Amino acid sequence: MEAVVTDHPQGEFRRRAADRAMHWILRIIASLTVVLLIGIFVFLLKSGLRTFSEVPILNFLFGTRWNPSSFHEPLWGILPLVTGTLFVSAGALLIAVPFGLSIAIYLSYIASRRTREILKPVIEMIAGIPSVVLGLIGLLYLAPLIAKTFGLSNGLNALNASILVAIATLPTIASLCEDALSGLSHRLSESSWALGATRWTTIRKVLVPAAAPGIGAAIMLGLGRAIGETMVVLMVAGNSLAFPRSFLEPVRPMTATIAIEIREVVVGDLHWNSLFAVGLVLFLITFAINSVTDLYLHRTIRS
Amino acid sequence: MTAPIISVRSLDVHYGSVTALHDVSFDIAPNEITGLIGASGSGKSTFLRSLNRMLDHLPTVRMGGTITIGGENILHEKTDVVRLRRRVGMVFQNPTPFPKSVFDNVAYGLEIQGIRNPRKSFLSLTRLRIQHQELEASDDPIDQAVVRSLKEAALWEEVKHRLHHSAYRLSGGQQQRLCIARAIAIRPDILLLDEPCSSLDPLSTRCIEQLLLGLKKDYTILIVTHNLQQARRIADHVGFFHTGELVEFGTAKEIFGGPGKTLTREYVEGAFG
Amino acid sequence: MKRPPASVTERIAFSLFRLSAIAGTAILILVMVLLFLAGKDALSWQFLTAPWQHGDITKGGIFPAIVGSMYLGLGVIFISFPLGIGTAVFLTEYSGDTRWRRTIQLAIRNLAGVPSVVYGLFGLAIFVHLLTFGMSLAAAVLTLSVMTLPWIITASVEALLAVPRAFRESSQALGATRWQTVSRIIIPSALPGCITGGIIGLARALGETAPIILVGATFYLTRLPTSPFDKYMALPYHTFILATQHSSPSAPAYAAGSALVLITLTFVLSIGAILLRLQFRKKRVW
């Protein structure tokens, strides 16, 4: 049988060369992600570590005052900043976790299919609100409201920031919890009903515990987002370097500090380096949260 | 039996620690239909896929022994699998047309060899406006190959007025014949079919069986099937696989008439009810 | 199976769940309404199309900020889409289940968790100072692209995994090289999914403010940028400065106006992408 298709040696060579070349090009492109992650870490480390040649690392981590621009006695303790971050993210999670979990339970067990299909994208649209917009809402509306409710001179404080950061993390938590709950087998709830449990007991005693690993991961990722949130805290947290004692006091989390001070410092001096060190602390915290979540999820999936 | 086109010697295939095929040896004659039968998991599909090295893509697979096609051991690590697959075409269990027009589906195998498709439709936006008479008279190699393959696959009359339609607008049986047309467009020597009729109705199945009987004058055909009647209707030789071994290989008459091995008889008779 | 009857606690609990869902929706509507109330006085044709006036802000508009954000968006598309889709193709089509693939996946998950302000620090150190791009469009585009990359990769991987394995096998069985299979069959089939996922990522990137505070947007510009190394204005930065650092009495209204334009831009992009995706899913044949 005569072959209609003749081999074209030259074209053949070109195709194979293209195949090999593309393999390597794609491999290099994909490796870029690893390079970037390491690059980010190395750059933070490079500038950040220089801080510690002048400021002892313990003074940096546990010092209770941050005042780098003081002429007489500059102080580099990030504890008030870390506490600010903790206040705001803890407050945000206190609001967003029950709220988000309720939405997730509603979406996965109570809502009709149609309602779910409309509501889920609506909740996810909240993630599309730029955080500068949330900050603006906080400045214009929430701050006066909080000031009036609690009789304060202004409403720019940890509470205000917590509420808005909660809104920012809500879609993450709600949608990941929903994934965890919807991923459960239908048989689980049916066998619980068969034992005479009500729907409410089933949700409380069977479904939520069964989805606990996923819900835990959702909370962790929400925490990561809350810690990294910058614009909201920059605009409404009140910018005070005093050590916070209550939610009604102004705070200045780590992210806000970096954003406020970085444009006013001399490139490469101690203050500049110390802000990279703050960035390094942020990076390590979020990295740890992600890794722990990852490990935890992998372990529970395997077992 | 004429000189074999495929010689298999002591073929072993392992997936990780699982043995899928053990010590398989036999010869396949050209221009015949060879049916491969056996229960699911017996290794018949694995055998078929080792003939065009489609197992290479599985991460843990290991192969031993030799498969000689046209005098060349295709299991050798230096074998050019791309060239091998142009000589050994394959049709899968479910129809797998690409999301392209009927014409472009058949032309694909030639296009990838660097032949320019004169009817290239860009994102199905441009339509193939040419009349089928013109296409039949065209002397462009792709046009000719498409017309010839569709005719050989007994599909031309059904699709000649809608060559620019998406392949997914064809019926299941037509889609499977399109896949056969796509496979034979590059004129392979050997055509492998992996349960090609399992998702089709009896009428389409019969149509494809007729088609295969017509194609065997040009191609050597190996077909995996769980349908014993089908093997009996169309196969010249039949191989029976059981738990990774080739239990028996012989003419269809031998296997279905009076097989030598008890295992084969049990399978053939059991399945006949 | 029939659902068991509801007790009183169950009714109360369920109405609370329902209420949360309603509240969630209300947040979205409330944000839009409040923003509109605050910004409606600033909105006008002039606001959208006129150059910015520094002295009396009511005389000018935010046109340069809109243009700046568009440039940023285009830049991100040109850089992070090809890189993101390329990485996704490597992960799904080339890498197999190797340790290197798992390393890359781990890196992507961690990159997605890095706070945006840290991306800002990185961009400031690398693009602004080390590569001496200065506080330019190029530095901002690169920083935002790095930040968007993990989102685009995740969306693209999902789209590529949705392409049936049969397409890959059929193409390879016809003697196609891997790259031919990828470029002629896999990418065309997955591209709609990659692009719609990418647009949603792009919308998020356009709203990000912290990185461009660090790598340096400008609040006042006399002319539009003409090269990648020019200074630029951007909507989120403009909103931020008007909201926090401008003394004009009409600054809050103008901040809300800019925010409205920004949120409209991001919502149009993401809703458009969602609708587009529904359309593609409906038309998808496999």
Radius of gyration of chain B, CA atoms, in whole angstroms = 19 Å
Helix/strand order of chain C: HHHHHHHHHHH
CATH architecture assignment of chain C:
Orthogonal Bundle
**Helical coverage of chain B, percent range:** 25-40%
Low-confidence stretches of chain B: none
Strand content of chain B: 15-25%
CATH topology of the largest domain in chain B: Rossmann fold
Q: In terms of structural class, how would the helical and strand content of chain C be classed?
A: mainly alpha
Give the key terms:
heterotrimer, A: 303 residues, mainly alpha, MetI-like fold, 2 domains, two-stranded antiparallel sheet, globular, disordered N terminus, C: 286 residues, 11 helices
Walk me through the topology.
The complex is a heterotrimer of chains A (303), B (273) and C (286).
Chain A lengths: L8 H46 L2 H6 L3 E2 L7 E2 L2 H32 L2 H14 L4 H20 L7 H25 L3 H9 L4 H12 L1 H17 L2 H6 L17 H8 L8 H33 L1
Antiparallel strand pairs in A: 1-2
Helix pairs in contact in A: 1-12, 3-6, 3-9, 4-6, 5-6, 6-9, 7-8, 9-12, 11-12
Chain B lengths: L5 E10 L2 E11 L4 E5 L6 H8 L9 E9 L2 E2 L7 H7 E4 L10 H10 L20 H6 L3 H12 L3 H4 L12 H13 L5 E5 L7 H14 L4 E5 L3 H7 L2 E6 L2 E7 H6 L4 H11 L1
Parallel strand pairs in B: 3-8, 3-9, 6-7, 7-8
Antiparallel strand pairs in B: 1-2, 1-4, 4-5, 9-10
Helix pairs in contact in B: 3-5, 3-7, 5-7, 7-8
Chain C lengths: L7 H32 L5 H5 L13 H32 L4 H15 L2 H15 L6 H25 L3 H9 L4 H30 L2 H6 L19 H11 L5 H33 L3
Helix pairs in contact in C: 1-11, 3-6, 3-8, 4-6, 5-6, 6-8, 7-8, 8-11, 10-11
Explain what the structure shows:
The complex is a heterotrimer of chains A (303), B (273) and C (286). Chain A has helices at 9-54, 57-62, 79-110, 113-126, 131-150, 158-182, 186-194, 199-210, 212-228, 231-236, 254-261, 270-302, and strands spanning 66-67, 75-76. Chain A has 12 helices and 2 strands. The longest helix of chain A is centred in the first third of the chain and has 46 residues, at 9-54. In chain A, helix 9 packs antiparallel against helix 12 (270-302) and helix 11 runs antiparallel to helix 12 (270-302). Chain A folds into 2 domains: 11-67; 80-302, MetI-like fold (Orthogonal Bundle). In chain A, strand 1 and strand 2 form a beta hairpin. Chain A is 75% helix and 1% strand. Chain A has a two-stranded antiparallel sheet. Chain A is mainly alpha-helical and 303 residues long. With 273 residues, chain B is of the alpha/beta class. Chain B has 2 domains: 6-95 and 192-272, 3-Layer(aba) Sandwich (Rossmann fold); 102-169, no CATH class. Helix content of chain B is 36%, strand content 23%. Chain B is built from 11 helices and 10 strands. A 6-stranded mixed beta sheet of chain B has the order 6-7-8-3-9-10, with helices on both faces. A 4-stranded antiparallel beta sheet of chain B has the order 2-1-4-5, with helices on one face. In chain B, helix 3 (102-111) packs across helix 5 (141-152), helix 5 (141-152) crosses helix 7 (172-184) and helix 7 packs parallel to helix 8 (202-215). The model of chain B has no long low-confidence stretch (mean pLDDT 87). With 286 residues, chain C is mainly α. Chain C has a single domain (73-283), classed as MetI-like fold. Chain C has helices at residues 8-39, 45-49, 63-94, 99-113, 116-130, 137-161, 165-173, 178-207, 210-215, 235-245, 251-283. Chain C is globular. Chain C starts with 7 loop residues before the first helix and ends with a helix. At the A-C interface, helix 1, helix 3, helix 4, helix 5 and helix 6 of A face helix 1, helix 3, helix 4, helix 5 and helix 6 of C.
